[in-house]
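Section 5.1 Outputs to date
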Amino acid sequence: MITRLMSSTFIIAGLLLTGGCSEQDAQIIAPGPVALTEEALGHYCNMNILEHTGPKAQIHLKDIQFPVWFSQVRDAIAYTRMPEETLEPVSIYVNDMGRATSWDYPENDTWIDINKAFFVIGSTRAGGMGAPEAIPFGSKDQAEAFTARHGGEVRSLDMIPDAYVLGPVDLKLQTNITTGATE
């Protein structure tokens, strides 16, 4: 009898404790970055991410198990600013190109939170799809050193103009800038 009474007490106490939590009170735990694999496909291009050079991005969405991949950081930023993209990001990671040993294939241990990055925009380096890139760095000093070699300017995420990530791209012009070709 005492055992049943104690069991009932624990059950009631457990229900009271869990019953007091609402969905609004529940914290969403942001997942950490995921390593790139051969199965990772670009959200917009549907191509294998590993086939593209330069910095990449991954967006983890609320209630979605796997990240959405981007072959260019610029495209991930655009995704967050498009009104038609209605799923809520809970975490976004980009390659810290200051820690990457290779521009072509940044390593899986270079992922950083997008909100902690400094971005170089308007440089002579194109992203994985050949379009202008928002190149992420973990430190402002590394971003400024990059601009000394490749041009551009350093910006925080919120200071990147919508037109830079959402506007049209003249790929012919970008190819000439990247390769140094002239017409």
